Amino acid sequence: MILNCSLPALLRTPARELSRRVRWLLVGAVCFYSLLGALIMHRWQQRSGQSLASLGFGYGALITAMESTGQYRVLPGVHHPEVSFSAHRLPFIPYFLVGLKRLLGDNLGRVALAKCLIFGALLAAAVGLVLLVSPLPLGVLLLLLAPALTMPRWVLNVFEVSLEEGYNIPALALLFALLWFSPARRRRGIGWTLGVGFLLGLLLFLKSSMLYWCLAVPVLVWLQERRLRRAAFLFALVGAALLLLGSFNARHSGRFTVASSWEGWNLFKGNCEHTAAAYPPYSLDLLDYEGKVVADRPLQDEWDHNSYFRAKAVEFIRSHPLRFCDLVLRKTWIFYGEVRASGLSRRDESRYGRPVYLLQIPWMVVFRILQCTAILLALRTLWQTPWSSDPSVAALSFLAFLALYSGFHLVGFAYERHIMPVVMPTILYLLHVLAENRICVSFPAVLPAAVPAATGIR
With contact defined as beta carbons under 8 Å apart, do 400 and 192 qualify? Predict the structure, then answer.
């Protein structure tokens, strides 16, 4: 097909009518994109020869402790002079990286390359599923996918090793592709349910802010399918993952819980008398380095640490409701409106001080337009169509994801990197809406024709 048609004709071809060879080439292109991104980050961060002990966000210290002591626990003196931590980081990333280290050696370059290829395969699978079923012209798909795949901050996060976003971005992309683009006959199979359940379990072991979203997915599947048995089975898979996580924490930290022992610490940094002076331009981790996050009594263990700072945060919120509301509004703006960099690591740094900060702004402007459009379309769908219909369930799942995921960050804190997992679901939802409205016009005239048809504007 590639040899027998011109590029414009190929771009006008509905994705599901592409030949198998073209679809596989496009999926392969996404895999190559993951390889290329990993290699660029390899050179830029000089990963070759680095030890995994150098990883940030607490992962390097935890991996070092796991291998030196045999325990999933960071000893006192690393994060706090008196307290050791084991329930501060969810277990998937540390064990995943330790497994890769044993296979490939203590070389961050090789480990990072393997990680990027494995999770790049999830991203490629998501794109492949969209290509398989979407009636939209290939050009439209590429036009809407391009803002994510080329966004500087998204790229930096998705190819990172010690950020949860480097793992949950591709996992969420595949999850939403399964929810919105799987044919009905495939959704009836056990393989689809197991695939969705696996991704939900993965998200639960990656990021605490995914908890309520993962619990909501079985309910959304029931609304879509009206098959109680399938939804119950999916809920059982989520429950089993939570049970395993609680048991893991009970074994290593002495408490059966799915919560992180850093939640109180983070809640305090996002809601204390020093927050407004630093946030949103700067990372609230600066408060730790500046000695502004200290206890006035000895702390016994990580759960005492968690309870102490949670209580301090709650006290601040109750005593200063207007200041709390102001901080929530700041966090809401960061999550849903800001286009400039946030969470900078130095107080003397400018939001415009690095080329990547400036380069990110036009991409964020485009994404904010797409995000606003997606939210308005979802609200319009819920207003005009029965809630049991496929379009309404998709709209509800998109809005529920935004609310349940962002809620953690609106109470705690949000930086630019926390928005990156929302980028691909937003674009996939727009593709789903266009497909539901059967927008199969020619490319490149697709956007002027597609937007009025999808929104109902005439």
Answer: no
